[in-house]
Each structure stands twice: as structure tokens, then as C-alpha cells.
Amino acid sequence: MRRPYLILAICCMSLFIVGLDTTIVNIALPSLRTDLNASVAGLQWTIDAYTLVLASLLVLSGSTADRIGRRRVFQTGLALFTIGSLLCSMAPGLGWLIAFRAMQAIGGSMLNPVAMSIITNVFTEPRERARAIGVWGAVVGFSLALGPVVGGALVDSLGWRSIFWVNVPVGVAAFLLAARFVPESRASRPRRIDPIGQVLVFLVLATITYGIIEGPGAGWTSYEIGGCFVLGALALAALLIYEPRREDPLLDLRFFRSAPFSGATLIAVSAFASLAGFLFLNSIYLQDVRGLSPLHAGLWTLPMAAMTVVFSPLSGRLVASAGTRLPLTLAGAGFIAGILPLTELSATTPFWVLTVSYVLFGFGFAMVNSPITNTAVSGMPREQAGVAAAIASTSRQVGGALGVAVLGAAVASAGGADFAARSRIGWWIIVGLGVVVLVLGLVTTGKWARGTTERVAPHMEPPVAARMAR
Predict the structure, then answer these.
(1) Same-domain pairing of 449 and 351
(2) Which of 245, 263, 280 is the last residue before a domain boundary?
(3) Is residue 235 part of a domain?
(4) DSSP character at residue 276
(5) Residues 383 and 455 in one domain
(6) What is the rounded average pLDDT for all residues in the chain?
(7) pLDDT band at 457 (very low <50, low <70, confident <90, very high)
(8) Of the candidates 227, 245, 263, which is a domain's last residue?
(9) What is the enclosing helix (H) or strand (E) of 42?
(10) Which helix (H) or strand (E) holds 449?
(11) Residues 272 and 354 reside in one and the same domain
């Protein structure tokens, strides 16, 4: 194995445990509800405490790695994630579990964007980089789709605490291999820390997520929920005003002048909201409505996992050979076709209908990862690759957090004792997100869209004279 591909493999190990952890918990939700006496909102926070903190810190972790060293931050993230996983397995109550999930997320935030920055600087030739990103996308899809299957087997045999044990050996191995084989690297001009921007980003995500999750219980017109949304809107306005005035902003809004980059960001939010919502609703449906064990519920998602594993590498090759339009179009079509049958879900829906839906949805998700990441880093200066990759990763996590929050709130607000009937509004929301992926995949991949990237990219690199003056 050539050294660059060994480094890619080490980086993918970190991606695997982060992706696996994002979805493995879903299959354990019914067991968590019984063992820890958790409400639906509590289950949502078990998922969103992780994705919310992860989304909030990804850009900060990427810029910190550029400043103090990518390998150093990468190893720190592996250590925190591994320790957090151990603590989650020993949590005495739901509150402790949510807190330890947040600790996991702090470590996880130091892994994906930093690993992508390492890969981008190791694979400098565009075609090789596209292939490496294809492998990266395949691992993302594989880990996310494998989570319910592995989780089901572990919960059924060893209990819900065992789902966190799987991270420990992989985390330790990746830590040791990174120390031996991953070279240390830094940006020639590291970005300054932006504490105000970081606080504002967290306020936006936390207040909006809290309002959506707690809205059905507290009442959508209550002062608590209204105050959350007002505070979130004010924080967003302050962020949009403050960030362009900083020389080194946490979120460089100039990225979003590129239509492909903006499109990839919105596609990432939509795709991962679809996946998170799908896994959340499906795990409850299969176990509570159909009466399946965690293992059997996980096995029923195996067609989705198989499609993701098989077709994610194909997506990377399509991006390398033909660009991002075709895989994004196929992704949107797969989402729509896969979820439409579930909009009529009932307690007696034939399993063959579920299987067809899982296959089509898995195919759609397999197609979407590589074009998102490739679009985020392509056309931008290599010096900005870490930040661009971090924003793309943030979009994924924001989508995951919002997917669980919005779909859970929609189903909770629907009323009625029949979960299958109440879940239909959630499936219709996912169909709408599939339409967003399809439309943006067509609109943001043409000649006009590429021209916006070409106009923006030169302005993203600070002048040479200015860098030398520092």
C-alpha cells in the first residue's frame, strides 16, 4: 500500500466510528426509553446532543488544526471520542448519557474536518483527490448505514450500553497509527480564533433545536418556545452582520457566493435530515409497531446498508469522470422514490414494500456523499480546504440535528395513538427534502454555477504580499 493510501485508511477509521455512532444509537432508542424511562423528547436529545455540539464545533476544530497542527488535533479528538464512548456505556441516567454524548461530540468535531484537510493536502492531483474523496464518501455511507445493523445485534445480545464499546478499539488503533504514519502539517497562514462567531453559531443551533424539540410539550405559543426562536433569529442576524467584518471569520460567508458550494451545503442539510429522520422514525416503527427485536429491526435495514456500501464507490467514480450533476440527480430521485411508499405506512404494510423503500433510499443516500464533499473543496484554494470541508461537515450535522428535531416534533404534534399513521407527515417531509436535493442538483451544477465558483475562488486567497507581511 502506498503511504498516501495508508494515511487515507487511518483518516477513514476516524470517519467510520463517528459515522457509526451517528446512527447506531437510533436502533437502541426503544431500549433506552424502557431502561432509562425516557420521553420522546429525551430520545431526541440523546441523538441531537451529539449532532448539535458536533455541528457547532466543526469549523472551530478545523481552524484550530490549521493553527496548532492537524495531527495533534486529530489525535486529541480520537482520545476524547474514545473516552466519551466509554463514559456513555457507563451512564447511570438519561441526563448523564446526554452529557457524555456531548463529550463524544467535542472529540468527534476534531476528526472529520481535520481528516479531510489531511487528505486534501496529501492528494494534490485533482483526479486522485476525487478518488480519495470517493473512498471517503463510501466510508461515510457504509458507517452510517451499518449503524442500525451493528446496533441491533449488540442491543439484542449485550444491551444498549454495548453500542458504545465498538468505538474503543477502533479509536485506540487510529490514535496509535496516526502517531506513527500521519505527518504533522499546519496552514502557512492559520486563521485566528473567532470566539464571538463561535458563540453565535452555537446560540443559533441550540435555541432553534431546543424550540423544535420541546415545542410539542411546552406549546408552540408558549413564552419559552417563542423566546427560543426569537433568540435564535437575533443570533443569526448578529452572525450575518458580524462575520463579514472580521478578517478571519469563523464562517467565511464568501464561500456561499459560489452557487455549487451553497447548493452542496443545502443538499447536505436536506440529505442528512432525511437520513436522520428516516432512522429515527423507522427504528421506532419496526420495534414498537411491528414488534421486532432490535436485531431483527437492524437486519431489516440491511438492504439500505448494502445499497450504500455497493453504490457509494460508484458515486465517487461518477464524480471523478463526469462531475456531480448525475449522482446528485440520482440521489434526489432515489430519496423521492424510496420514501413515497412510506407516506401510506400502516401497521400491516407488507415487508416487501418496506424492502423496496429501503433499497431505493439507500441508493439515493449512496449517491449524495461524494458530490457534496467534492463540491465543497473543489475550485477553492488548498489553503481554505479545511474550512470548506468543515462547513460541508457542519451542514451534514445540522441536517441530522434538524431531521430528528423537526420530524420528531411533527409526529408528536400529529396526535393519536397510531404511530404509523402519525409518522406519515414525517415521511412527506422527507419526500420534500428529496425534491430539494433533486432540484438543487440540477440548478447548481451547470455552467452558470461553475462560473460563480471561478469568480469567488481568487478572492478567497489572501494576497501574497499580505501573507509575507505577517
Answers:
(1) yes
(2) 245
(3) yes
(4) H
(5) yes
(6) 83
(7) low
(8) 245
(9) helix 40-68
(10) helix 447-460
(11) yes
Confidence band of 234 (pLDDT split at 50, 70, 90) = very high
Q: Which of 75, 69, 64, 317 is nearest to 185 (CA)?
A: 69
* CA gap 446, 148 in Å, rounded: 37
Do 163 and 230 lie in a common domain? Answer: no
Q: Mind giving me the DSSP string for 160-179? A: GGGGGTTHHHHHHHHHHHHH
- Percent of the chain as helix, strand, coil, to the nearest 5: 85, 0, 15
Same structural domain, 155 and 267: yes
pTM: 0.80
Encoded amino acid at 280, one letter = F
How far is residue 110's CA from residue 301's CA, in Å, rounded to a whole number? 29
End-to-end CA distance of the chain: 40
Residue 366, domain member (yes or no): yes
Amino acid at 311: F
Q: Give domain status of residue 342, yes or no.
A: yes
Say how many domains are in the chain. Answer: 2
228 and 287 part of one domain: no
Q: Is 218 in the same domain as 365?
A: no
Rounded to an integer, what distance in angstroms lies between the CA atom of residue 319 and that of residue 312? Answer: 11
- Residue 123: phi and psi, rounded to 5, are -100, 95
Q: What is the CATH number of the domain that holds 415?
A: 1.20.1250.20
Give the dihedral of Cα atoms 236, 439, 394, 408; nearest 10 deg: 80
Same domain membership, residue 86 and residue 205: no
- Quote the cell numbers at residue 181: 504514519
What φ, ψ does residue 374 adopt, rounded to 5°? Answer: -65, -40
> Taking 70 as the threshold, does the pLDDT of residue 2 lie above it?
no
Instruction: Please tell me the distance from the alpha carbon of residue 203 to that of residue 220, in angstroms, as a whole number.
Output: 19
Give the residue among 456, 389, 394, 113 at the shortest CA–CA distance from 254: 456
Contact status, residue 298 vs residue 27, Cβ threshold 8 Å: yes
Task: Give the count of beta carbons closer than 10 Å to the beta carbon of residue 244.
Answer: 12
Half-sphere exposure of 458 (CA within 13 A, CB side): 4
Whole-number Å distance between alpha carbons of 215 and 335: 28
Q: Which H or E element spans position 33?
A: helix 29-36
Longest CA–CA span in the chain (Å) reads: 70
Range of the domain at 232: 195-245
Predicted local confidence at residue 468, as pLDDT: 29
In a domain, residue 100? The reply is yes
Residue 312: partners with Cβ closer than 8 Å, 6 or more residues away: 134, 137, 138, 140, 141, 142, 366, 369, 370
Neighbours of 443 (CB within 10 A): 14
Provide the 10 A C-beta neighbour count for residue 337: 18
